[in-house]
Amino acid sequence: MDVIRPASLQDCLRILKTEHTIPVAGGTDLMVNLALNKISPDRIVDISGLQELKEISLSDNFLKIGALVTFSRLAGREIAQYPFCNALREAAEKMGSPQIRNRATIGGNLVTGSSAGDGSVAILALDAQVELTGLDGIRKVPLSLFYSGYHQTAIHNDELLTAVYIPIRPGTSSFQKVGKRNALAIAVASLAIYSYIRDSHFEQIYIAIGSVAPTPIRAVKTDLFLQGQKITGGVIKEAARIIQDEIAPITDIRGTADYRRKLVANLLTDQLQQLSESKN
């Protein structure tokens, strides 16, 4: 197996045109899959030297995050200054160990396509788009349409995920997950919320859930129910009921389907109660 380190993004894209080629940055997922013989590429393209993919900037009412930005940076001051991105910062803080956060990139987390990906759940709640770059040009795909199935995405073999675009909005967001231990745990379930509350009512709300379907999903019916509502005990209770009907969890070694349904309802209840208390 060959390892190639391109000098530029264009060189990288030309190499990706060849068959049986996989890009790698942090390698925290890829190295595990290689060790387990889940993948066997002829060549690996090391993209960790592409500096233009490590930038965080403001661009046309979006916060643009390069695909090679690490989770350590996402957990730091650059993101903390944007309240609408709190969910991403909180997800980054909870992701893996310090060593993993120093290596793992947001682009890698997204293209892995895991339903339990902390970064993907947080970014899904932020109504973000991903930038996919190939030799034929650039296209932007809403993250809500990026996942097509279990570990399957809309990215083509000759494309590279180069950036994430998060709309700059008023409001705030939050992220919670529950694992079988406090650290280094894959989520039994996770939930992120973006909300903008005006005059005590939800003017905008987006909810995303992880580990309850083949891909990270948006809780669209729950969003629609909460839109325009004032946060009351009755509203929170009904939202918790609706969200349990939106998910299709499985039973595995981390938890039963019934436990996951109740867990998601509890995570939603907890975050809505926190929002209610912060506005009182």
Written description of the protein model:
- The protein has a 5-stranded antiparallel sheet.
- Among the domains are: 1-46, Uridine Diphospho-n-acetylenolpyruvylglucosamine Reductase, domain 2 (2-Layer Sandwich); 173-279, 2-Layer Sandwich (Enolase-like, domain 1), CATH 3.30.390.
- With 280 residues, it is an alpha+beta fold.
- 36% of the residues lie in helices and 26% in strands.
- β4 (56-59) and β5 form a beta hairpin.
- The longest helix has 23 residues, at 257-279.
- It is globular, with a radius of gyration of 19 Å.
- It is built from 12 helices and 14 strands.
Helix- and strand-based class?
A: alpha+beta
Poorly predicted runs are none
Tell me the total number of β-strands: 14
Order of helical and strand elements: EHEHEEEHHHHHHEEHEEEEEEEHHH
| Termini Cα gap | 60 Å
The name of the CATH topology of the domain at 173-279 is Enolase-like, domain 1
Provide the CATH superfamily of the domain at 173-279.
CO dehydrogenase flavoprotein, C-terminal domain
What's the Cα radius of gyration?
19 Å
CATH class of the domain at 173-279: Alpha Beta
Structure keywords:
280 residues; alpha+beta; Uridine Diphospho-n-acetylenolpyruvylglucosamine Reductase, domain 2; Enolase-like, domain 1; 5-stranded antiparallel β-sheet; 4-stranded antiparallel β-sheet; 14 strands; 36% helix; globular
